Amino acid sequence: MCGACGADRGGADWARPWVAGPAARAAVAAAVSRVRPASRTRISPVVGGWLVTRPTGGSAVCGTLGELVAAVRSASPGPEAPVDPARPSGPLAVPPAADGRTGIVLLVDPHRPPRDLATALSGSARPKETSASEETAPPEETCGRKEVTPNEETTPTEETTPTEETARVEEAARAEEAVRPQETARFDVVASALVVVPAEADALDVLAALAAPTWLRRVYLARVEGAAAPWGAPPSRGTGAPPVPREPGFGADVLVRLEWARQEGRFDGTAVAVRWPLGGGALLDVEIRAGHLVRARTLHPGTPA
């Protein structure tokens, strides 16, 4: 734990897959040191993290990107320098395979039964599937209900159960993803679980939970529906990246500047998404909503997103 971070917005260790290894940590150290170059704060990569040495002589070891950025921000006040488009800090590590986490659609709807993260992942709110024999077998007893013969006319009911309604929303979400343009399909997010909350305040609680270590390792946010606030709108791609050439060599700069801006609260009221080339056709896919890091994944070409 970085001693300089305290209860700052360092958050969970969301960037570890991309800062693994000496080369990536050295690139991140260079990128952080260039944010405020006049501060005389030194950042050195060490095994499993970074050593931050302050101008006063004090030092701290930080094990995560969030801790590193928080430590340097507190130790080096002053103006930020823009990223030099002629001096990339270096590329990030490329995780070898997809992480297998589950995508979440967050729906704000006061008229539907609430469905939390645990229920969405367990599938306990899904309609029970019946076999063909169960569908055709007659009931053992009528429990006082009138039996309907094949010759009697029946009027279908218009009501649906909450589980049927939830299943319909999930099916619509999957169908929407299926009709997206083919050229973007290989990198599009396909959600497989639905979380329903009655109000935007509850949705903010879910976003905070998604950014916490407990859920960050298991799920990521695919999209938000039903929220009128700016953080609930579809994010504009690339809005959080610095104006530099779109090359893997600037990966560390993009990662550091995103986390720096997030900790300073620049994304607290909005939605930001960045997809940055890592090399070999892979992309870093990051999304921040209301200041919470709710998606950080590697998208490999030819694999389902």
Automatic annotation (TrEMBL):
Residues 165-182 have a biased composition (Basic and acidic residues). Residues 151-164 have a biased composition (Low complexity). Residues 75-182 are annotated as: Disordered. This is Uncharacterized protein.
